[in-house]
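#struct-help
A.M.: can someone run this one for me? Single chain, 429 residues.
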Amino acid sequence: MEANHRSAAVAGQEGRLLRLRCSVKSYEWGRIGRESSVARLYERNCKAEAEDGKPYAEFWMGTHDSGPSYVAPETATAAAAEKELLSLKDFIEKNPRAFLGDKVYDRWGPNLPFLFKVLSIAKALSIQAHPNKELATILHKAQPNVYKDPNHKPEMALALTEFEALCGFISLEELKSVVHNVPEIVEVVGTKYVDELLCVHEEDVKKAKEVLQLIFTQLMAASKDVIAQALSRLISRLSIKNEARELTDKEHLVLRLEKQYPADIGLLAAFLLNYIQLKPGQALYLGADEPHAYIYGECIECMATSDNVVRAGLTPKSRDVQTLCSMLTYKQGLPEILDGVALNPYVHRYPPPFDEFEVDRCILPQGSSVGFPSVPGPAIYLVIGGQGTISEELVAEGDVLFSPANTEITVTTTSGLSLYRAGVNSKFF
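D.P.: on it. Structure tokens below:
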């Protein structure tokens, strides 16, 4: 009876926009209460009240089992309907080709290939990387309780506010400067590897990667006592220098991080990573096997549908240093910062070099409208601010709509509207 009821609920919905009730994550690094955009979205989306002293870190939109979205009932006041909410995953599985389109279904099966999020960060996330597809399959099979799925997780962060992150390894030239200016790193890894580094020429990329891997692995594998002593000397030295000269941005950052994660190896590792500061509307993408840590700010995040994380620093959680150090690419240099490609006066598109997703940023002034053409794949629309209509559906802050494949969308507003769209990368079709 229940299966028949659910099938009836899906029938006739294939071409319609579906309102979603989404999941929220209260990790300890999230902003507290209504200071968090995630909390405000949660209140409006789920018709719930945020708790004042609780951190609200991530707002999830998609079909991942760790944070599923549900199709909202037609009448929000129907208590019985609330108890029988269908997950978006279950909804799609009833007629996946109609909802996802043939090409998406043939490539990724009956689930959305992307996971869409909003992050609200008060405290730095761990230094981490996400495994490639092959490694994710191996890790999931060996430790399914830790690595929740067999998928890779390339991702992109699009800044909503000023946003700080550590991302990728610094250049060879900068690394040589670090070992000259941060003696505590030399104390931990030893002069042998540092001497090797100083002899590497810029054009010898392979050798540079080999030596960087040796230095990073030696650093991350150091004992807690060795790290504690080195950090004590580092913090003392920086505090004294701060009275004599202006510290560098990286040095200021390390002092900030020390207040959040005292005696953590991530404080030294931060010197080896690029410190990135994004302005609202700027984005960076992160391929598999690249080290990174989000530090502060709020962002839209989109990724392949996965929740696999390998951590090694700036965290009280379980670390897998051996896996992290062996999986990284050790590519050096600044990551590419994306400003988006203007599709029209109101919409900028951020297409990463992955098939699974792209993100559109739409800022509509009052009294305007814009169209999103029909595409042979699904999309999710998130309203961040303002109010208006999405194809005749009244929308405001916190509303999330799922658009099936081959659905043309028109967005209008009389007062102004800010929304973000995630969909399969247009280059895939």
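A.M.: thanks! The radius of gyration is 23 Å.
D.P.: also worth noting: The chain has a mean pLDDT of 92.
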